Amino acid sequence: MSAATPLLQVRNVSVDYVTDYGNARAVNDVSLDIMPGETVGLAGESGCGKSTLAFAISNLHGAPALISEGEILFDNRDVLKMSPKALRKFRWNEASMVFQSAMNALNPVITIGAQITDVILAHKKVGFGEAWERGEALLETVGIHCSRMTSYPHQLSGGMRQRVVIAIALALRPRLIIMDEPTTALDVVVEREIMDELYALKKEFGFSILFISHDLSLMGEIADRIGIMYAGRLVELGTSSEILSSPVHPYTKGLVASFPTIHGPKVRLEGIPGNPPSLLDLPTGCAFAERCSQRTEICGKAVPDLVPYGSRIAACHALGPKESAA
Ligand SMILES: Nc1ncnc2c1ncn2[C@@H]1O[C@H](COP(=O)(O)OP(=O)(O)O)[C@@H](O)[C@H]1O
Ligand SMILES: [Mg+2]
Fold it and tell me: pTM of the full predicted structure?
């Protein structure tokens, strides 16, 4: 595959949750590419559809979620059209996922070693001895001593358990790792250690990452590009520095202003007033209009298209030709 071919192409994907009150469109016409070796961040307030999109990418959805539209191409194969057998091979081998609460998903009555080797044995034609050795090497890779293979999950700290989950995600050398709030449940010191580990692993193995977080400062450290979601839609997508240093969408501006910068002067942080709209009752126009200080008449009438502004894309009626020339 040439470097110019995306590893993952999310094309016009919409996902609905079928509820008693109607369909809630949690992901709305989202398109996004991830190149080989690239880290793409996905940020936005809780409930904006990040996890729903992550699940869609690995075709992990079941009722009440319904992937209503779109294509998800991994290496030009549509993940949404894969047979159950092809999907089993795709997950873990080619794309793996690390969830926020994944550390609690480890089986409490099975040793760490048995859980890692299980994944290897289920997918690779190797004997138990070799799988165990690979497991030990994987633990070392994520900074855990190989003697921990015989520990049970409760004998490890939360941070160590999350590292084990990352080790399992790496076990089959996938080309894409989807990380959904991988460190949100951990304290900041452990979070920092795991992020450092992740940089090193990425350097060594060269996989792509879809890094989902509500924490923009954390994301800025690891992501090459960042996409901002609001009420199920992608509203801005650009390089990390474009998004963090010169956001153009009013929602991105608000989100960036509500996070402290690690360096830079101390400033009063501003939140975004109001709440996102109900997905069951989305407004006719821009979903952010009600909270937006730059709204004009058109904002209540039409959903803005996602269009290029320089090298980024953004969806906002208020962005005029001046921004597009930038
Ligand atoms: N099982 C479900 N049934 C109905 N609605 C759901 C379900 N799961 C998530 N949602 C809704 O979908 C929207 C997006 O959720 P989610 O993808 O979890 O957002 P995020 O990960 O950005 O916090 C939210 O409004 C949430 O309430
Ligand atoms: Mg989520």
Answer: 0.92
